[in-house]
């Protein structure tokens, strides 16, 4: 089997690792890839937006499947091009990908369909946006409508902060065309969980939930980033009384509720608008006391969530088989996407579990000096030998003229560690992270801190009961 993987970040390295682990004889071609992916297959220096060159490569190498990692080529219409040529590809069309590439489109769809989400207004004029912020009151969220590398969401504690964010986007051109229109959105209280669904447009299966850490610094301080780490499992969901609760059964109920209240109606609505979605739909959910509400959608695997999920994902059918089915237009097992009159899922589960019920994974991102503003590149990286249960995924790395591994982007590496508990996985990840060497490295030592606090609280409660 021959697969073309488009992208060169940590998400793509994790996918490459998983696909080659599932299919040891797989011939992997990555464009452009990175030094970590180069250890698993061939890297071809083609830009992810050079769709003509990517199509030629896929044809010349007679690939069985193309997998699109990042969002930019989806927005550029690579899936539309490949499908028109009869070439199997995993991902959504340009129109379907607007669920991520246009926050304005996504929000309008959610509100029109009554899918749980925060109240929001969309504006292109500074005065109107500031007036909306005052209607919502502080804290309030200001979002660039387009793609902004995960940095276009500003949680504003005061109206002054909101005014500054609005000025930066609409007048200061901080995010370029992505910030030409902004969403002013109510602040939702709760914890976020990321849940993925793989879909052929007519059926979908749900993968285990994870929690991402967006802020640069420990204790959720500092600026927003593309993500400084992630972990699973997240023992958080809703109890039988639909209250937020922290136990495994609650997490399972959350999965079913997300399938019923979020994924099924969203996929149905996209199909009804002539935008059937295929590939990986990512839902960022806020677990509020009134139920899960959509914060955002992505139209591809999350980063760094993918680096945490792949080491513990053991599924049947295999991930590569699910991707092939979607790419070839074949049906998936799982929940059906209802038509306009169809019923939503009310029982059962298409959740695909991790390898072991107790398996946990913590992923810690190592970022370059000056990230997220103007990351410094060219710093030499020294990696210690790998240990069992520890995985290093390359993101912003390159080889210099002397063949040395150097920093080449904002988020440089992701160190994932697997252990029986989140606390042990965090400790294993940190032990390796602290031995990685490059000038100016930044990382959070507290990935998974909320889950660890919950685990300790449950342990204390059990001890008190004894």
Assign the CATH topology of the largest domain: D-amino Acid Aminotransferase, Chain A, domain 1
Percent helix: 25-40%
CATH architecture of the largest domain: 2-Layer Sandwich
Oligomer: single chain
Low-confidence stretches: 353-357
Provide a descriptive summary of the structure in words.
This protein is α+β, with helices and mostly antiparallel strands and 466 residues long. The protein has 4 domains: 90 residues, Rossmann fold (3-Layer(aba) Sandwich), CATH 3.40.50.20; 68 residues, ATP-grasp fold, A domain (Dna Ligase, domain 1, 2-Layer Sandwich), CATH 3.30.1490.20; 146 residues, D-amino Acid Aminotransferase, Chain A, domain 1 (2-Layer Sandwich); 98 residues, Phosphoribosylglycinamide synthetase, C-terminal domain (Glycinamide Ribonucleotide Synthetase, Chain A, domain 4, Alpha-Beta Complex), CATH 3.90.600.10. 31% of the residues lie in helices and 25% in strands. The protein is built from 13 helices and 25 strands. Strand 10 and strand 11 form a beta hairpin. About 1% of the residues have low confidence.
Topology readout:
Blueprint: E1 2-7, H1 10-22, E2 27-32, E3 42-43, H2 51-60, E4 65-68, H3 72-75, H4 78-84, E5 89-90, H5 94-101, H6 103-113, E6 120-123, H7 126-136, E7 140-144, E8 153-156, H8 159-171, E9 182-186, E10 191-199, E11 203-206, E12 211-212, E13 215-217, E14 221-224, E15 229-232, E16 237-238, E17 244-245, H9 248-272, E18 279-288, E19 291-298, H10 305-309, H11 319-328, E20 335-336, E21 360-367, E22 390-394, E23 397-399, E24 405-407, E25 411-419, H12 422-433, H13 449-465
Parallel strand pairs: 1-2, 1-4, 2-3, 4-5
Antiparallel strand pairs: 6-9, 7-8, 7-9, 10-11, 10-18, 11-20, 12-15, 13-14, 15-21, 16-17, 18-19, 21-25, 22-25, 23-24
Helix pairs in contact: 7-8
